[in-house]
Amino acid sequence: MSKSKVEPSRRRSLSDPLAAALLPPPNESPIQRELRLKAENEARKVSEGIDEMIRQERNERKKAKAEVNVLLLGQSESGKSTTLKQFQLLHTPAAFRAERMAWRAVIYLNLVRSITRILDALSPETDTLDDHDDVDSLETASVIISSSGRPPSAISGTKVPNYESYRARLASLVELEDRLTRLLSSPEEDEPTHLPSSQNWQNIANVNGNGSSFPSRTSEFANGASKGRPAPTILIPQNAQSYGSSPVSPINGNGSSSGSQSHASSPSSSNGTQRGKEVTVHTSINWKKTFALGGKSKSPKSAHSGEIEGWWEDPEDPVHALNACAPAMSELWRDPKVRQRLKEKRLRLEESSGFYLDDISRITAKKYIPTDADVLKARLKTMGVVEHTFSISSGTNRGVEWRIYDVGGARNQRQAWAPYFEDVTAIIFLAPISAFDQVLTEDPRVNRLEDSLLLWKAVVSNKLLANVNIVLFLNKCDLLQAKLEAGVRLNQHMVSYGDRPNDYESVSKYFRHKFGALHQAYTPNKGRELYVHLTAVTDTRRTAIIISAVRDIIIKVNLRNMKLV
Ligand SMILES: Nc1nc2c(ncn2[C@@H]2O[C@H](COP(=O)(O)OP(=O)(O)OP(=O)(O)O)[C@@H](O)[C@H]2O)c(=O)[nH]1
Ligand SMILES: [Mg+2]
Asked: Which of 191, 475, 538 most suits a substitution to test ligand 1, by most atoms within 8 Å of the C-beta?
């Protein structure tokens, strides 16, 4: 070997002590080389032996501690966080209820957004937009896109003579929407992603005298998220995928995302920006202060529930603006002309996330305290990964430590999933089957059901997950039933459904078969059993029954697998 070839690497090694130590000695004789290679070979065997020991120890530890890691997967708005809330409600109800007052802000924002969406839909300006803009401006949820395009009635439809009057009477809600959005959203999202700040929440906890046991979202939950493992490097292609040929975002750590980030801003963002120009917006810090329930709190309502009285005495509390607008809100929602116009525009708010329009007077009451059902319905988008831990003290699951990971399902969140695949015991995959006529918020060209099917296929075919139990929740069955009963036909959105009956029984059976067949065809583990449930995870009673069945199955299969290790 010529000197000039050796020198650069030796020079490099000067700045890299590890590389220097590993380099073969210069002028190594053939015998020395043979001895060195033999020694290296033995060292490698020792190292592999240690790896095997570590693996066995980990399995033993798992057995001894009986640890179960469950990953909730599915597209955005599939119901993952709602399922997590149901686990909480079942296993840590005090913690769940302690958070309820913080959810008030989310519920208010959900309600206000429904109202501003109606006003936007009634606005004469939206009538002049073309088909695509129309759909975008109304957000994606519950808007049907059919190949036949917008019906003529949507363009020259029912007039709402009171529109200007409604707009004037509800003007303060536009400002409120901005304030709540700022309070609850992260800088890069215009959707609510977190509860009001931990400082405020801590104050509430302290007032109740049991602060330390309060698992505020920003302590227990968000800590779990921040404990998250580093995400793998992913490639994001420049070209967005279109409906019909859209690949699924990466879930194996080396796949590619849909490139939907550039489409991520939802229609409401443009509206929000417009509104932002029209109104004076408080800084989020002031707003947080004024919304801080703890600061103005009086007597604790009950020591265990985390409920505080007295917020209604704060003139800045949003409840006052809402309360003052309640009659106009109710009138707007009950107005037959408004309903007719929404129908013409094919905007079914009843099916969208965070729907509270049927409870306006209860929710805007000065002393409103969110119920369990209200909290379950509240829509807060998940960013990153949220961890929830609990253990069960009785029954067959006794002593088992459960860790549930709730991930963000939007396309730009999916790259965070793969690091959690390694230690997972079971996956609960949620597919909202009512969404067959809806498109993704982050990419309005992609049908939601199509995205779910592709995501499902990617999960069930993943080799890393070959030995992981999979439970499938075909979710939002309540909305599916309502949609079918309202006359929406599946075969207009899914040609393969053909002329089968358009009733709930037949449609749900069809989806069960479709998802089951994909699992059967693509699983790398032909012996894996698939557990399928038709769910409406906002329904506490039924979901509790399903959760305990799922828990028992996961434990049983996990024990069986561990015996085989
Ligand atoms: N009617 C009805 N609403 C549901 C059901 N499941 C979830 N929702 C609602 O749908 C919305 C979205 O649910 P989430 O649990 O936040 O969805 P997610 O999968 O966590 O969404 P990301 O965090 O964006 O990934 C919430 O407002 C829920 O209350 C259901 O079965 N029926
Ligand atoms: Mg979520």
From this structure: 538
* Ligand 1 pocket test, candidate residues 72, 75, 77, 193, most atoms within 8 A of CB: 77
Ligand 2 centroid from CA 382, angstroms: 4
The amino acid that residue 216 corresponds to is S
The protein residue whose alpha carbon is closest to atom 2 in ligand 1 is: 476
Rounded Cα gap, residues 333 and 340, in angstroms: 11
Give the residue whose CA is nearest to atom 23 of ligand 1.
382
Please give the Cα distance from 316 to 498 (Å, whole number): 56
Instruction: Count up the domains in the chain and report the number.
Output: 2
Looking at the structure, tell me whether residues 387 and 483 fall in a common domain.
yes
Do both 126 and 196 map to the same domain? Answer: yes
Distance CA 274, CA 138 (A): 15
Is the whole model's pTM more than 0.95, yes or no? no
Q: Is the CB of 452 under 6 A from ligand 1?
A: no
Q: Do 335 and 186 fall within a single domain?
A: yes
Write down which residue in 370, 399, 415 finishes a domain: 370
Q: What is the CATH number of the domain that holds 407?
A: 3.40.50.300
Q: pLDDT (tens digit, 9 = 90+) per residue, 78-127?
A: 999 999 999 999 999 998 998 898 899 999 999 999 999 999 999 887 65
Question: In this structure, are residues 466 and 525 in contact, taking their beta carbons and an 8 Å threshold?
Answer: yes
